[in-house]
C-alpha cells in the first residue's frame, strides 16, 4: 500500500491536476473565509470517489454549501449499456450518459467543486483526514488530501458464464422490473435463477406479464411450496440446461436455446445476479461489509471507519438511479453538518 505523507508533493500534484480547473466565470469572486488552522493543510473538505448519480448529487449539495470538493470520475457507470433510466422524476426515459452529462453540467456554477477523470487506487489516513492517490485520464499520478471521503463507486454484477448473457446485458437481459418492466409488459418473459431468489423475482415479474417462465439452468432447488406458489400464478418452470441466449444485433433478446436444441421465444430475461464492490477502497481502510458485500453505513451515511462515508449502490438497500441520487444528497448534508461541528466546537 502506498503512503503519501509528504504534504509538499501532494500540494504540487493538486496544483497540477485541479488548481487551474475552476470555471473562469468565478475568477473575480472574493475568496472564501479561511478555515480553522486545524484543517488548513487539507486540499479538499470532501473527496467524492465516483461520478454516478450518488456522487454527482453529493457534489451538487456540497457545492451549494460552499465546500471544497473534488469528484473523481473513475469510469463508466454500471448502467451504461441500458437504453434508458426510468423512474427518475422529470427524467424518465433519459439515456444514462445524458443524465450524467446534465449532472456534470449543473456543477459548473459552483466554484468550489471540481470534477476530474481520476481513478483512485489507494486511500490512507493522514492526521484527521485522508490521503488519496490515483491515476488521471492522462496517465499521470495524482495525489491529494481531504478531511472526509465519500465513496460512491457502485457495484459490479457477476453474470452467469452463459453465451449471450453479457452481450445482451442491459437491454435483453435485465435486473430490475421497476426499471424495465413497463417496456416489456404483456410480452413473454423469462426469469433466471434458483431457489428462493428466482421464486420471489418470478412472482414480482408476473405483475408485468402473465406469460412468465422460470429457467433454472439445471436443478432449480425449489421447495414444493415455492413450486405451488409459482403454479398458482401460472408460472412454468424449466430445469433444462441452457446452451445460450440468442439476441438481435441491437441487443434485444429473441429466444433461449437449451442444450437439447430446443428454443423458446422470450422478449426479455430477468435475473438477480450476485454483486461485488467495484472498488476495494472501503476494505483497504478496514470498513465493514454486510453479508451481501455492501459497505455498512449508519443513519448518517458514515461507514465503520470514522470520516469515511458511502452512498448509492455501494451501500445496502434498493438500487435505482433516483435512490442513489437521494442517498448522495443525504450523505452531503450529513458531511456538511459534521464538518460544521468540527469547525464550530462547543
Describe this structure in words.
The chain has 2 domains: 7-156 and 275-343, FAD/NAD(P)-binding domain (3-Layer(bba) Sandwich); 159-271, 3-Layer(bba) Sandwich (FAD/NAD(P)-binding domain). The protein has 8 helices and 16 strands. The chain has helices at 7-19, 53-64, 96-105, 177-180, 195-205, 224-232, 281-284, 321-343; strands at 44-49, 69-73, 113-126, 129-136, 141-151, 155-157, 173-174, 189-192, 212-215, 236-238, 242-247, 253-258, 263-265, 268-271, 275-277, 308-310. The strands form 4 sheets. A 5-stranded mixed beta barrel has the order 1-2-3-4-5. Strands 7-14-8-9-10 form a 5-stranded parallel beta sheet, with helices on one face. The protein has a 3-stranded antiparallel beta sheet with strand order 11-12-13, with no helix packed on it. Strand 12 (253-258) and strand 13 (263-265) form a beta hairpin. Helix 2 (53-64) runs parallel beside helix 3 and helix 2 (53-64) runs parallel beside helix 8. The longest helix is centred in the C-terminal third of the chain and has 23 residues, at 321-343. The radius of gyration is 23 Å and the shape is elongated. The two termini are 37 Å apart.
Key traits:
346 residues, 2 domains, elongated, alpha/beta, FAD/NAD(P)-binding domain, 16 strands
